[in-house]
Amino acid sequence: MDATNGTESVDLTGPIYHALIELARKEDALAAAEAARVPYWAPCSPSVEGHRAAAEALRAEAESLTRSA
Q1: How far apart are CA 29 and CA 48, in angstroms?
Q2: How many domains does the chain have?
Q3: Is residue 8 a part of any domain in this protein?
């Protein structure tokens, strides 16, 4: 019980970690789907790199949760 406001303390680290990883997987899937529509000799859309960067950032945030927990 949290003495400051009388509520129970709930650890949300696990659910947040899994949500971030799931969002990262979805970003990877979006990047792969967009990249698959482009011929191999053509450059990918900047949004493909954006999805990949978002996935990387989400994974980094998830990992930072495990280090701080």
Answers
A1: 10
A2: 1
A3: no
State how far Cα 5 lies from the chain centre: 32
Q: What 8-state DSSP symbol labels residue 40?
A: T
Contact 35, 44 (CB under 8 A): yes
Residue 47 has which token pair?
Answer: 């949004």
- pTM for this predicted structure: 0.80
The residue segments making up the domain with residue 51 are 13-68
CA 49 – CA 52 distance, rounded (Å): 5
Say if 50 falls within a structural domain.
Answer: yes
- Average pLDDT on 26-52 reads 96
Task: Measure the CA–CA gap between 47 and 36, rounded to whole angstroms.
Answer: 13
- Cα-Cα-Cα-Cα dihedral sign, residues 3, 8, 14, 15: negative
The SS3 of residue 35 is helix
